Amino acid sequence: QTVKLQQIGSGHINRTYLLNTQHNKKFILQQLNTFVFKDPHVIANNIKAVADYLKIYSPDYLFPGPISTLTGKFMFHLEDEDEYWRLMPFVANTVAYETLSQTKQAYEAAKQFGKLSRLLNEFDTSLLTTTIADFHDLSWRYEQFTFSLDKSEKALKDKAVKEIQTALHHHFIVAYYKSYEKSKNFPDRVMHHDTKISNVLLAKE
Question: Are 31 and 14 in contact (CB under 8 A)?
């Protein structure tokens, strides 16, 4: 059957398309960036594990996870081009904002990110596999910052004096992070970890 593809979104990593069939059924088709995500199947398995958990413990929660192929896979490998694609349901009457225009948009987005974390509070994180090692390691990120600061030219640092001072001032947050990281009373939990406004679908007004 005939389908129409329209590239949408402003993501810098993956390419996302709106797929419209001749019967006006809509889906979201996305190509994963394998330069960033070396093993796309890990992402597919992680999302499936989360989707399966929510289906059992929060069946009324709308989680638009990938649609499986006829062989039961959540990621399609186009071998000739060595490309990985996934298909997701299109959620009608929703909008993804690129920028905020109202305070309540930020509130609703934060509320939904928090709700997802709450629903997955008891999820067994050992079922998940790391997709990008140390990507969210605050200690390592701060080390990268200080290393770059030492190697940067004075003229460049002079242009960002306030920003650099702010980052250095908040170094204490790294110490907090390290203490929590080693604490037995601070278990691993599932989070979205890319909490930008365009990653939330809000109802159209």
Answer: yes
Q: 142 phi and psi, to 5 degrees? A: -70, -35
Answer yes or no: are the C-beta atoms of 149 and 167 closer than 8 Å. no
Structure tokens at 174: 């790294």
Instruction: Give the span between the Cα atoms of 191 and 67, in whole angstroms.
Output: 22
Return d(Cα 126, Cα 189) in angstroms, integer. Answer: 10
Low-confidence ranges of the chain (pLDDT < 70): 1
Return left, alpha or beta for 42; rule: phi > 0 is left, psi -120 to 50 is alpha, else beta.
alpha
For 126-149, the pLDDT digits (tens) are 999 999 888 889 999 999 999 999
Question: What six digits make up the tokens of 61?
Answer: 């929660």
Contacts of 130 (CB under 8 A, 6+ apart): 42
CB 128 within 8 A of CB 49: yes
Query: Looking at residue 23, what is its pLDDT?
Result: 81
Q: What is the pLDDT of residue 119?
A: 97
Please state whether beta strands 94-95 and 202-203 pair in parallel, antiparallel, or not at all (unpaired). antiparallel
pLDDT at residue number 198: 87
